[in-house]
Amino acid sequence: MLFISARVQIPEQELEFITMRASGPGGQHVNKTDSAVQLRFDYANSPSLPDFYKEALAKMKDNRVLESGWIMIRCETQRSQLMNKETAKEALVSLLQLAGKPVKVRRPTQPSKSAKRKRTDSKTLRGKIKSGRGKVQI
Q: What is the pTM of this model?
């Protein structure tokens, strides 16, 4: 079970793991073992994920969340396949927790009178500096 929050839990049966050879340095070990892991999760058709999470994931701008309703996480940082699986699960949990947070609504504000005055004062000062840069007239 993956615990996303107090109410949301995802069973391990909904996760798919694909193993492959990792890229990068490592010599003979990396060339012979399937230590890299790709975690796939079909969030659009998941019965254990609430609709709120599904809508938030669909709007999310993350390259791991695909438009087809899948989450793909590739992990090849560790030397062992088991450690890569655990790292991929942690990445999925953090991604789903991020999707579960409510979006903070921005309330537009107006600048204060002193802020407006400081802005205009700095602009006039800058204009005076620039106007003194011309040719000297004799």
A: 0.70
